[in-house]
């Protein structure tokens, strides 16, 4: 089947600057999701359930072990497990939400207007930042409810743990992981034209994250000092899951965390540039997929 191609017209001289365009897209993504009642209600319900679960769990711990002092558990591992699981859920949800929006715009031909008025790079950057802010806000609501409830019932009195550094690095790896995996989701979403094909396109990315989650929870603690675990934890994408667990188990120095984070941060713009190239080739195409090596024409440059 011969692909149908609509050429991207260059933005006019009166078009907004890239900064204004990115800000416009961010605002559009935020408004679209905040006015979506299902997203707001589901977030509040998850926050209420998280708060209820943490409150009940904290009350049980205090009631059962409060008189005996600190609970003899590997709390660092438990916190790392909770954070890795939250990271997995947040990255999969946000990536699928972003990819779904890309396919919806493409199937409705709205993308033609967006690319003409805004351009490829500001459009994708705005979508990534907008969806990332929404996802981070949801994490803060749900996690904040759980932490507040656990604190109110005095749950921390029986746990010997310092959350400060763990939460800080969790935020760092969430941001780096989101930028990487969400960018890849956008790339894959740009290569399909129907929602029915989106699940198939994203399956490899979702499966790879599940595999990383399993490796982080089960293999990293068992092979913490192994060279192959140490090497893999510096690889971009993999580091978002492996480094937090190594840090929680005291299997990595802070300088190693910083180096791994810098490597991941340098990879993000390279991955984003590659994604914009593929998106530019595929965004306005229907029918067959375009090969990744197909050169872009001058008319396709936004």
Spatial sequence of strands, sheet with the most strands: 1-2
Could you say how many structural domains there are in total? Answer: 1
DSSP summary: helix tally: 10
| Biggest beta sheet attributes | 2 strands, antiparallel
The CA-CA distance between the termini, in Å, is 26 Å
Mean pLDDT: 81
Structural class determined from secondary elements = mainly alpha
Helix content: over 70%
Number of strands: 2
- The ordered H/E elements are EHHHHHHHHHHE
Per the principal axes of the C-alpha atoms, what is the gross shape? Answer: globular
**Structural Rg:** 22 Å
* Low-confidence regions: 1-13, 295-302
Please report which band the strand proportion falls in: under 5%, 5-15%, 15-25%, 25-35%, 35-45% or over 45%. under 5%
Task: Describe this protein with a few key phrases.
302 residues, mainly alpha, 10 helices, disordered C terminus
């Amino acid at each position: 089947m011969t692909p149908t191609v609509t050429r991207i017209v260059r933005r006019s001289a009166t078009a907004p600057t890239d900064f204004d365009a990115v800000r416009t897209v961010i605002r559009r993504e935020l408004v679209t999701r905040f006015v979506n009642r299902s997203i707001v209600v589901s977030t509040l319900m998850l926050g209420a359930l998280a708060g209820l679960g943490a409150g009940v769990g904290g009350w049980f711990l205090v009631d059962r072990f409060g008189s005996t002092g600190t609970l003899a558990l590997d709390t660092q591992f438990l916190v790392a497990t909770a954070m890795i699981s939250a990271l997995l859920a947040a990255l999969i949800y946000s990536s699928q939400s972003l990819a779904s929006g890309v396919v919806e715009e493409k199937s409705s031909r709205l993308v033609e207007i967006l690319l003409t008025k805004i351009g490829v790079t500001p459009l994708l950057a705005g979508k990534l930042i907008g969806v990332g802010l929404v996802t981070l806000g949801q994490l803060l609501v749900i996690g904040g409810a759980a932490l507040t409830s656990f604190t109110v019932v005095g749950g921390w009195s029986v746990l010997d743990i310092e959350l400060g550094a763990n939460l800080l690095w969790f935020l760092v790896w969430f941001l780096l992981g989101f930028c990487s995996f969400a960018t890849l989701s956008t790339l894959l979403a740009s290569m399909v034209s129907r929602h029915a094909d989106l699940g198939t396109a994203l399956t490899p990315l979702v499966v790879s994250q599940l595999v990383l989650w399993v490796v982080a929870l089960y293999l990293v603690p068992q092979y913490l000092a192994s060279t192959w675990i140490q090497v893999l934890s510096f690889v971009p994408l993999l580091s978002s899951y492996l480094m937090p667990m190594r840090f929680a188990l005291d299997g990595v120095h802070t300088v190693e965390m910083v180096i791994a984070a810098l490597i991941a941060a340098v990879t993000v713009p390279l991955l984003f540039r590659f994604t914009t190239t593929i998106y530019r080739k595929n965004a306005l195409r229907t029918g067959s997929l375009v090969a990744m090596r197909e050169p872009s024409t001058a008319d396709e440059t936004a």
